[in-house]
Amino acid sequence: MWHLDAQEYAAQLLKVLPAAVYVCDAEGFIVGYNDRAAELWGRRPKLGDPALRFCGSHRLYWPDGRPLPHDQTPMRDALVSGTVTKDGEVVFERPDGSRFLALVNITPLRDAQGDIVGAVNCFQDITERKRTEDDLRRSRQDLEDFFENGTVALHWVGSDGTILRANQAELDLLGYTLDEYIGLPIAEVHADRATIDDILARLSRGERLDKYPARLRAKDGSIRHVLISSNVRFQNGQFVNTRCFTVDVTERRQAEAALRESEARLRMLIEALPAAIYTTDKAGRITDYNEGAVHLWGHRPELGSGKWCGSWRLYWPDGTPMPHDQCPMAIALKEDRPIYGAEAVAERPDGSHVPFAAYPMPLHDTAGKLVGAVNMLVDITERKRAEQSAQQLAAIVESSDDAIISKDLNGIIATWNAGAERLFGYTADEVIGKPITILIPPDRHDEEPEILNRIRRGERLDHYETVRRRKDGSLIEISLTVSPVRGTDGRVTGASKIARDITERKRAEERLQLLAREVDHRAKNMLAVIQSMVHLTRAGTIADFVSAINGRIGALAHAHSLLSQSHWEGADLTSLAEEELAPYCRPEDPRVRVDGPNLTLVPVAAQSIAMALHELATNAVKYGAFTSPGGHVSIQWSRRADGRLVLRWTETGGPPVQKPSRRGFGMDVIERMVRDQLEGAVQFAWRTEGLICEIELPANAIAHSARTAAE
Predict the structure, then answer these.
(1) pLDDT reported for residue 561
(2) Which DSSP string do the residues of 375-430 spell out, in sequence order?
(3) What is the largest CA-CA distance in the chain?
(4) How far apart are CA 61 and CA 59, in angstroms?
(5) How far apart are CA 277 and CA 527, in angstroms?
(6) Residue 605 in this model has a pLDDT that exceeds 80
(7) Phi, psi values for residue 431, rounded to 5°
(8) Which end of the chain, N or C, is less surrounded by CB atoms within 10 Å?
(9) What pLDDT sits at residue 349?
(10) Three-class DSSP category at 245
(11) 223-235: strand order across its sheet
């Protein structure tokens, strides 16, 4: 360790230094540092801290990002081997994670005998300086890259007229190597002496050249037309060098010459071609047209009077009016660009319309100035008709519920519409390019060769009923129509197939047969019921007999009407009750209450309940609640836990009731219908205030769907 006075001296020295400085003893322990070092470290380490040696930073890194352990730092090298570090670069990391690049200078300290007793490190933050240097270096590199690799030809010329520097684009333009080109007098490169003399004179006066036209002679003797943009770099008022940008316009000049020739040929073509062709000046005034244009326009416009187009009126393809100053020719002239195939509709003076495609092309003089345009109008009436037909056909095919498929003569699927996807379950991507046999069950594979043979002969198959297989393996009955597809030469190239699902039709046919059998059965059953009704009906007179029979047949008719609406699957109990009461009161009549859960009765139960309700209503009209204005009838039903149906007929407010002395036919009908046909039970309660009839039916009297819903 140093003597105390030396340490105090060092501490005073550290404080006044503007750079960050710290001192280590021979063991690497920090024995002193200044405020700038603490600021850059981001902390103030304890002097002599045995846990902190060689540097007060949190972490250290080499400039390339590799970690630099404290015991491998340049400070350690200075203490161990006396190494002096000059302008070394190290990255310091503070405890908060921030980093900076430091320039370090480390010098070992020796005593009088020359032994190393410590070392001092003077370091400074050079992060911003380094960033600036890197930016300058990159900028310099970018400029060099721009000069050397730019696609525009560049060269410098000295005050004596010799070439000082040139990039590769310049060398490629003229065919020289760098050694051949540098040092050449610029006048030797120019084909016109007067031109280069004028260029150098202008530049010497400090003028800027912008796209100055010139001709350069390449090494092989060929002439290149160029546009030169240049200015001079002056230093202290002295001409140093010019900086020249050279743009090769040889091809453009050649194109201008070709354009002049093209204009001459165009004039001949305008006179000879049957297409509608016309020209305008740059303002859009028509300057010439041919007979094809006269035919399309339907009249001969006066030259110089009409603008942009000689048509009577113009329309957009959707039918809305198109102002002439928005037509393709007008746009081509305004924007100085060709337009290819823009569509519009011309109206002739006679009112007829002609759809056309326009191909306006701007025309330029040799200087590149717009002088007018030429336009060709192509009548696309037939194409539009074909497109419309194709679109209509495509829409029909795509929207069809039927499967529409095309295949080649080898049975390979070519097209597949949405109907086919719905019918067979395959997407178009899954089947196009695959054999049609993927849809045919194995036991029907012999059908396809016969179909293809008939198609090759040009035959058509109409409504051929067969079975095909879906993607999921299920079978489907279809009606198949197959037609040959012919090419433009009339030869058969494939087949179009329309497949229609006839599953529902087959089911309908089956249902029709079942319904016919059902009607036969119902008719026989109805005749038996009516025969029994006639046999059992008793009446004092023929008129009473007819009235009784008519009422009972009407009750059956109401039940049958409801059953027919459900295709004989059952009758709604609420509707059935309202139908039977309808002859005696309106549905909204407050004297009647019909209440119960929604239930559907099987046909036989519906007939029986209809007859029972008819008999009860007839009795109420003759003797019960319906004979009095204050009488009320309630029909209510419910289901028991075991599924049985209980229907209760309750009368109140009518005349006093007494149990009849003899059983009437109505009671017999109700009991026979409920007990004998439905295996149910009936109870009558002849109360003074009114009749109560309770009918109990087994669970199977309720249609299955109604039972399931209720459960």
Answers:
(1) 57
(2) EEEEE-HHHHHHHHHHHHHHHHHHH-SSEEEEEETT-BEEEE-HHHHHHH---HHH
(3) 160
(4) 7
(5) 89
(6) yes
(7) -120, -25
(8) C
(9) 92
(10) strand
(11) 163-166, 153-158, 238-248, 223-235, 209-217
- Give pLDDT tens digits for 77-90: 999 999 999 999 99
Q: Where are the alpha helices (DSSP H) in 205-308?
A: 250-272, 291-297
CA–CA distance, 702 with 639 (Å, rounded to integer): 10
Written as six digits, the tokens of 591 are 């004297």
| 181 within 8 A of 166, measured Cβ to Cβ | yes
Closest-CA residue to 499 (of 429, 413, 389): 413
* pLDDT tens digits, one per residue of 106-125: 999 999 899 999 999 999 99
Beta-bridge partner residues of 153: 246
State the DSSP H helix or E strand holding residue 280, giving kind and residue range, or none if neither: strand 276-281
What whole-number distance in Å separates Cα of residue 433 and Cα of residue 431?
A: 6
CA 396 → CA 207, 244, 300, 382, 485, distances in Å? 73, 67, 43, 21, 17
Dihedral sign (CA 539, 541, 547, 553): positive
What is the separation of C-alpha 194 from the centre of its chain, rounded to a whole number of angstroms?
A: 64
Residue with tokens 């194409």: 383
* Distance (Å, whole) CA 494 – CA 482: 10
- Return d(Cα 436, Cα 468) in angstroms, integer: 11
- pTM, to two decimals: 0.31
Torsion angle of C-alpha atoms 453, 454, 456, 461, degrees rounded to 10: -140
SS3 breakdown of the chain: % helix, strand, coil, rounded to 5? Answer: 40, 30, 30
* Cα 656 off chain centre by: 80
What are the residues facing 552 on neighbouring strands? none
Number of neighbours of residue 418 by Cβ within 10 angstroms: 16
Query: pLDDT value at position 50?
Result: 85
Judge contact between 346 and 297, C-beta under 8 A.
yes
Q: Report how far residue 234's alpha carbon sits from residue 210's, in angstroms, rounded to the nearest whole number.
A: 18
Helix (H, G, I), strand (E, B) or coil at 74: helix
With H, G, I as helix, E, B as strand and everything else as coil, classify residue 288: strand
From the CB of residue 303, how many other CB atoms can be counted at a distance below 10 Å?
A: 14
d(C-alpha 483, C-alpha 435), whole Å: 18
Q: What is the pLDDT of residues 650-690, one digit of tens each?
A: 999 999 988 887 776 677 778 887 887 788 999 999 999 99
pLDDT at site 2: 44
C-alpha span between 249 and 228 (Å, rounded): 10
Contact yes or no for 706/570 (Cβ under 8 A): yes
CA dist 31 and 47 (Å) reads: 5
Q: Which residues contact 500 (CB under 8 A, 6 or more apart)?
A: 402, 403, 478, 479, 480, 481
3-state class of 643 per DSSP? coil
Q: How far apart are CA 291 and CA 277, in angstroms?
A: 8
Instruction: Give the count of alpha carbons within 13 A of 248, CB side only.
Output: 18
| Integer-rounded Cα radius of gyration of the chain | 55
- 3-class DSSP assignment, residue 196: helix
HSE, side-chain direction, 13 A CA sphere, residue 633: 30
